[in-house]
């Protein structure tokens, strides 16, 4: 009989480079210390360790609230630990979370939630937490924690796309990063949340523009001095803006009539935004001032490069 649970996958980003730099013995010791600590933290937060997978840990929680609280504290604590770790041993964490029914067989768990959590862990970047919508049912946003919709994402092996959110957790540790600047080494690429060179490409009515991460925020709207002009009466003067946050491009609606986001390969799963925001990923389209059902709606194609 299936068990309703919330599954958490953690993975240490950059462990391969650590093995290459330190050799098998020292790298194994470093990875084992971290995965053991992850397991201890999860258990103290109400989780149950299912197994460790090299540099990863699979944990089950009784519900989404326990899981989300646990993974946010994991990221906050691990980020502080990284600042005290020599450069050659720094391995930021990425985490996937999914709620659903699983089958328990000989102490191991199987099912859609396990597959989704593992895939989200693979897809997200270092320092990030991605989860399916079910994992956030009834979960409260606490201080410094924000849920940002990424929209529908195709998960290998699933017929239907999965509605995915990113949990932002950095806000209340900002002061720690500011007060520990002496420990930061700019050569450590793993700590660069704003990956240099990331761009977004926008296209409307044959006009294409690219904007780099350091050029954001940029404004989309009907006025001439907007960074990307969409001259249509349904588009507000300043309809939306694009911001660069923690390595992601965030679309923020500021319009009178709303915006709709559609991701490539996810037709029928449009995201409606009215004074709300959404993290953009991959390729897709933005319908401004009316839904995609209106064939004349001004539609901006986007691509994250």
What does this structure look like?
It is a single chain. Helices cover 22% and strands 36% of the residues. The chain has 305 residues and is an alpha+beta fold. It has 2 domains: 3-191, Nucleotide cyclase, GGDEF domain (Alpha-Beta Plaits, 2-Layer Sandwich); 199-304, Tumour Suppressor Smad4. Strands 1, 2, 3, 4, 5, 6, 7 and 8 form an 8-stranded mixed sheet that branches. Strands 10-9-19-18-15-16 form a 6-stranded antiparallel sheet, with no helix packed on it. A 5-stranded mixed sheet has the order 12-11-13-14-17, with no helix packed on it. Strand 13 (240-245) and strand 14 (248-253) form a beta hairpin.
Total domains, how many? 2
Percent helix range: 10-25%
Return the average pLDDT rounded to an integer: 85
* Major beta-sheet overview: 8 strands, mixed
Q: Mind telling me the C-alpha Rg?
A: 21 Å
Shape: globular
- First-last Cα distance: 44 Å
As for the CATH topology of the largest domain, it is Alpha-Beta Plaits
The low-confidence runs, each spanning 5 or more residues with pLDDT under 50, are 172-197
Structural class by SSE content:
alpha+beta
Give the ordered list of helices and strands: EHHEEHEEHEEEHEEEEEEEEEEE
Number of strands: 19
Q: Based on the structure given, which CATH architecture of the largest domain is correct? A: 2-Layer Sandwich
Strand content: 35-45%
CATH homologous superfamily (4th level) name of the largest domain: Nucleotide cyclase, GGDEF domain
CATH class of the largest domain: Alpha Beta
How large is the count of helical segments? 5
């Amino acid at each position: 009989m299936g068990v309703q649970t919330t599954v958490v996958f953690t993975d240490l980003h950059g462990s391969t480079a650590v093995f290459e730099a330190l050799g098998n013995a020292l790298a194994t010791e470093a990875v084992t210390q971290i995965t053991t600590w992850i397991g201890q933290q999860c258990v103290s937060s109400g989780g149950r360790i299912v197994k460790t997978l090299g540099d990863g840990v699979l944990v089950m929680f009784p519900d989404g609230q326990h899981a989300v609280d646990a993974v946010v504290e994991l990221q906050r604590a691990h980020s502080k630990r990284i600042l005290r770790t020599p450069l050659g041993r720094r391995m930021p964490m990425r985490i996937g979370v999914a709620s659903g029914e699983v089958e328990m067989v000989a102490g191991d768990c199987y099912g859609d939630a396990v597959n989704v959590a593992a895939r989200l862990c693979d897809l997200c970047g270092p320092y990030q937490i991605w989860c399916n919508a079910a994992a956030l049912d009834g979960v409260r946003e606490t201080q410094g924690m924000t849920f940002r919709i990424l929209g529908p994402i195709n998960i290998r092996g699933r017929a239907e796309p999965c509605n995915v959110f990113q949990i932002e957790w950095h806000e209340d540790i900002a002061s720690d990063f500011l007060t520990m600047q002496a420990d930061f080494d700019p050569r450590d690429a793993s700590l660069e949340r704003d990956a240099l060179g990331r761009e977004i490409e926008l296209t409307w009515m044959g006009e294409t523009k690219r904007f780099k991460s350091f050029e954001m925020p940029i404004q989309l709207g009907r006025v001439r001095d907007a960074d990307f002009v969409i001259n249509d009466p349904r588009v507000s003067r300043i309809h939306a803006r694009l911001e660069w946050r923690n390595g992601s491009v965030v679309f923020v609606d500021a319009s009178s009539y709303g915006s709709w986001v559609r991701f490539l390969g996810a037709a029928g799963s449009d995201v409606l935004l009215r004074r709300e925001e959404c993290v953009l990923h991959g390729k897709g389209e933005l319908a401004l001032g009316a839904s995609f059902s209106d064939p004349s709606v001004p539609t901006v194609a986007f691509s994250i490069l």
